[in-house]
Amino acid sequence: MEVINSIAELRLRLASRGRIAFVPTMGNLHHGHLALVSLARQHADCVVVSIFVNPLQFGANEDLASYPRSLQADCEGLNQSGADIVFTPSESELYPVPQTVQVEPPPIAFDLCGKHRPVHFRGVCTVVAKLFNIVRPDVAIFGKKDYQQLFILREMVRQLEIPVEMLAGETMREADGLAMSSRNNLLNPAQRMEAPRLQRALQLVVQASRQGRRDFDAIEAQTTQYLTQLGWIVDYIAVRSASTLLTPLPDERQLLVLGAARLGMTRLIDNIEFAL
User: Fold this and answer.
1) Which positions are catalytic?
2) Which CATH code for domain 2-169?
3) Is 90 exceeded by the pLDDT of residue 68?
4) Predicted local distance difference test score (pLDDT) of residue 62
5) In the chain, which residues fall in CATH 3.40.50.620?
């Protein structure tokens, strides 16, 4: 496995590597990331993983400075998981001048997580588009845990005619149901014990929906109140169409419940796809 820091060297190494699969990450990797690498291995001759904490997707007072970084351990895990190249550019390498040209995401980017992080998805789309132009992969792999991100990036690829196949990896969970996330490392022991409650709360939403309730606003409000009473700071609980991420139409049956909430300073997200 090679670790490459420069765009020029990466392009040189990829010039004759056959079919390329790409897994963009911000590092501090866990088994969920490594599962995406294993999925990539099934679809390409060469697997490229990027590790870059992208400042464009962090707003003021967000956790850019405290975002966990563990490059050595990440590289060890990627080597064992079958990655061929790890691309670890510096900020000055990826953004040698201020990135005044940015990708404007679709309107859904300013709802759900975007309502609370208004610059986030513009930053995500810009860095991913830039990485796609650098790596030029045949296939790119993203996890379903960041479902809104996956949806937006699929729209970017479709509308901008970017020639890359988008694959989604299933959400990987700890034994107690908590969705794997780099931010889980920021939870103190008491918060870590409480954290799986978000997923259990979303399961209650699914259960109520399958029992025939379609008053999604009321279900969302009740779930928000339930978590708030237990000390969570809830950004949103939302039932949406799995195909549009908009409020479900009366006859829609393929749905999704998404949640984002904070324990202390740590923001957790999760979602469950379900059918009625």
Assistant:
1) 33
2) 3.40.50.620
3) no
4) 79
5) 2-169
- DSSP conformation letters of 74-111: HHHHHHHHT-SEEE---HHHH-SS-----PPPPGGGGS
Residue of 152, 150, 154 lying closest to 169 (CA atoms): 150
Q: Find out if CATH 2.130.10.10 is the number for domain 182-270.
A: no
Contact indicator for 223, 232 with CB cutoff of 8 Å: no
**Whole-Å CA distances, 63 to 67, 112, 235:** 6, 19, 16
In three-state secondary structure terms, 49 is strand
State the Cα–Cα distance between residues 205 and 191, nearest whole angstrom.
22
Boundaries of CATH 3.30.1300.10 in the chain? Answer: 182-270
Beta strand 266-275 pairing with 254-263? antiparallel
Mean of all residue pLDDT scores within the chain: 96
- pLDDT at 16 exceeding the cut of 90: no
Q: How far is CA 69 from the centre of its chain?
A: 17
- Three-class DSSP category at 176: coil
- Kind of pairing between the strands at 2-4 and 85-87: parallel
Q: Which amino acid is at 172?
A: M
The angle subtended at Cα 184 by Cα 180 and Cα 185, nearest 5°, is: 125
Residue 87 main-chain phi, psi, to 5 deg: -100, 115
